Inverse folding.
């Protein structure tokens, strides 16, 4: 009886050890791949930063009209953002190569699924990024325009515009990622409709004064005007 | 540059038939034949007052007015020319620049010794107006004549508060109306200005001419031409107006930076003609809505202003926003720094140029309100002296502009 237990234990220990021994080189290869890819990634990112620094890439982008990218970059530097993207892409590649050393079939399945899904992720990120830039740009346009028109609720309109575009961008990004399915559509419809209704009510109620003022101005045009002494031209 | 091949066939034939002219007067704003006939009479009278006999050609863009001879002596001829494109461009400044370029090219083809560009309302244009723009070129050999419009103390405020003092501080010439819009040019200046325009990527160089003319080393003078009819203020579109005027001005600053950075101080330029006597305007002015616009701007646009204005300026603006209306005064050095900082923001592309220029409107209104209150009971002469002090403040503040232009990161008070 005791001999049987001992034999069974020896057998399972041998099995575990042999399996561990068979996996160990794979793990070592994974670790090595991560280390090497990290080193390559660091070198590439360092090189990229130096090259972009030499060509004043940040200033070039600003001059080409991509000033909004600064706000979205770490330390307000688009070149740093690009360097980090390159760094993490190379590290990710290293991890995939490392996993291939563990189990080739698993990696090929993983890579296949990843590459099928990757365009959706890229599109979603792009939609979010563009949506944010457009939202900020339009919100600022609306704010400046509304202040110049002397509208007291300028900030409210500007914030409304910004959130409407952001909500639209998030809903589009989720749709691309196939997350949430019809819930996103319904939630977006309710939320967007709610915002539009709220804004319509806010602007409608708030602009009564504006409408009456513009009507008054139209009516006053027919009467002799009080001479305004200021001429800007 | 407009080549002869680009000139419409009918106009080309007319130009070849005309052969040569001493003076070309381009009318940009005429809207119909009666106005053109009145301008033709003014041109004839102006040419008659010159020291030497001169033949003139009026260039206009009124399609229903045929080309031909305008008077019995044949001294004034009319040339119909499509100065402006039938479909308006998105940028009206490109239109103005292209129209000026076309007019200059025709004047060059006709071998004109002088060319006048008149964009003011033709109702204001008198023989004295035309004489003032071409006589210094023909008789005194000047290259560019800028106009001196006579106006009341509360008129021409964008020019008085920004354009004229900024041009004076940058280029060192005390020109009353550097952006015209009416100008006189010599034949040789046309060639140089056209060459600069064709070499210029942004092609706006023919919109703001004074800076280019000074940096090209052209001889400049100014003439008192009379009182210009100014349209009433279109308040809702004031920000568009500001953006339209200040945009080219700031672009010029960038293009001529190498020149103006070497200039220190300022000098007056020769002035011809007599100012038109105007009555003094006195009495209370209502600036409350402008102060409220500024306060609203301070409440909402601080984060936008903060992109271009340093914290010290924002602090000063905060103090100004809290002042009661009767003590509302914007110091000259504060206003000067604001204008310089917006020019710097435009140069460094801190934010979209359109946002930047439009965001300046409440600040400009604060200056107008402050000036209005200060000059409420002042005479015209007092107002002129006041504006001269403002121009001196621009000159005194130029080292600040230079430092931030050259070292934006190192010099940020």
């Amino acid at each position: 009886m005791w001999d049987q237990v001992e034999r069974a234990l020896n057998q399972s220990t041998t099995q575990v050890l042999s399996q561990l021994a068979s996996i160990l080189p794979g793990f070592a290869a994974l670790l090595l791949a991560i280390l090497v890819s990290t080193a390559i990634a660091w070198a590439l990112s360092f090189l990229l930063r130096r090259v972009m620094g030499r060509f004043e890439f940040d200033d070039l982008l600003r001059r080409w009209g991509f000033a909004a990218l600064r706000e979205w970059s770490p330390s307000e530097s688009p070149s740093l953002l690009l360097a980090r993207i390159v760094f993490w892409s190379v590290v990710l590649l290293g991890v995939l190569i490392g996993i291939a050393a563990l189990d080739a079939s698993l990696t090929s399945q993983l890579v296949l699924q990843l590459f099928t899904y990757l365009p959706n992720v890229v599109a979603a990120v792009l939609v979010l990024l563009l949506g944010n830039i457009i939202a900020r740009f339009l919100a600022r346009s609306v704010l400046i325009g509304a202040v110049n028109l002397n509208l007291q609720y300028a900030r409210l309109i500007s914030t409304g515009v910004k959130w409407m575009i952001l909500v639209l961008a998030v809903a589009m990004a989720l749709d691309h990622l196939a997350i949430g399915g019809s819930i996103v559509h319904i939630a977006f419809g309710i939320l967007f409709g709610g915002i539009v209704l709220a804004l319509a009510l806010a602007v409608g109620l708030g602009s009564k004064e504006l409408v009456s003022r513009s009507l008054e101005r139209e009516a006053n045009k027919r009467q002799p005007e009080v001479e305004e002494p200021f001429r800007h031209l | 540059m407009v080549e002869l091949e680009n000139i419409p066939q009918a106009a080309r034939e007319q130009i070849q038939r005309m052969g040569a002219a001493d003076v070309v007067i381009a009318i940009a704003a005429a809207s119909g034949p009666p106005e053109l006939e009145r301008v033709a009479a003014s041109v004839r009278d102006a040419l008659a007052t010159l020291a030497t006999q001169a033949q003139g050609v009026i260039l206009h863009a009124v399609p229903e007015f045929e080309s031909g001879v305008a008077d019995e002596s044949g001294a004034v001829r009319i040339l119909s020319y499509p100065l402006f494109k039938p479909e308006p461009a998105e940028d009206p400044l490109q239109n103005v620049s292209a129209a000026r370029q076309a007019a200059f090219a025709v004047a060059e083809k006709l071998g004109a010794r002088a060319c006048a560009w008149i964009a003011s309302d033709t109702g204001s244009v008198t023989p004295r107006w035309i004489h003032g723009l071409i006589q210094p070129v023909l008789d005194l050999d000047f290259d560019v004549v800028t106009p001196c419009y006579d106006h009341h103390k509360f008129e021409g405020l964008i020019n008085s508060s920004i354009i004229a003092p900024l041009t004076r501080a940058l280029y060192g010439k005390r020109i009353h109306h550097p952006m015209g819009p009416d100008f006189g040019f010599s034949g040789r200046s046309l060639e140089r200005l056209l060459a600069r325009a064709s070499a210029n990527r942004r092609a706006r160089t023919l919109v703001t001419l004074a800076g280019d003319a000074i940096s090209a080393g052209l001889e400049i003078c100014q003439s008192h031409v009379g009182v210009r009819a100014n349209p009433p203020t279109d308040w809702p579109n004031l920000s568009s107006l500001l953006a339209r005027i200040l945009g080219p001005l700031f672009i010029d600053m960038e293009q001529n930076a190498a020149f103006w950075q070497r200039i220190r101080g300022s000098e007056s330029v020769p002035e011809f003609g007599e100012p038109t006597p105007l009555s003094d305007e006195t009495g209370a002015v209502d600036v409350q809505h402008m102060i409220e616009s500024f306060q609203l701007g301070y409440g909402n646009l601080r984060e936008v202003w903060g992109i271009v204005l340093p914290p010290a300026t924002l602090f000063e603006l905060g103090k100004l926003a809290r002042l009661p209306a009767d003590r509302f005064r914007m110091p000259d050095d504060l206003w000067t720094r604001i204008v310089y900082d917006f020019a710097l923001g435009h140069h460094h592309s801190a934010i979209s140029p359109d946002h930047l220029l439009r965001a300046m409107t409440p600040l400009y209104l604060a200056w107008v309100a402050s000036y209005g209150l200060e000059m409420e009971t002042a005479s015209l002469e007092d107002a002129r002296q006041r504006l001269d002090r403002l121009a001196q403040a621009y000159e005194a503040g130029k080292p600040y502009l230079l430092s931030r232009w050259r070292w934006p990161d190192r010099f940020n008070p």
